[in-house]
Amino acid sequence: MAHTASSSFTDRPSLDGTDIRRRIMRLRRLATLLDAAFVVPGTRFRWGLDTLIGLLPVAGTLVMALPSLYIIWEAHRMNVPGSILVRMIGNVAVELLADFVPVLGDLVDTVYKANLRNIALLEDHFGMTVDGTAREAPPPR
Predict the structure, then answer these.
(1) What PANTHER family does the database record attribute to this sequence (predicted)?
(2) Backbone dihedral region of 133: left (phi > 0), alpha (psi from -120 to 50 degrees) or beta?
(3) Nearest-angstrom CA–CA distance, 141 and 139
(4) Residues 10-23: pLDDT tens digits?
């Protein structure tokens, strides 16, 4: 049986709820590292590696785009609908475009937190809470 390279690239695994929960929790850890790993002492202000590495002109932006695109790739592999993937790409695009403006881009990285926004989209789509548990169904009316 012939195996083509393109089939393995486009194949999406069949995932159960436990797999999806595990993947989203792993992606949340990555997004937190990128967007909110550190806190300014005495404040609620959080920032992550995206802000720090993004200080490097152009190279920092390109390097930090990779983990953001990885989160979107994983969403695609979890069979997330195209409409949500487009919103996720839009979130990353906002940060990437802003990064090409000195100082403004760093502020946008710090405040906008595209990766955490994308994880929230995944959790909402799969009906999960921040801690990875299934969201309870609303009480009957």
Answers:
(1) MEMBRANE PROTEINS, PH DOMAIN PROTEIN
(2) beta
(3) 6
(4) 566 677 889 999 99
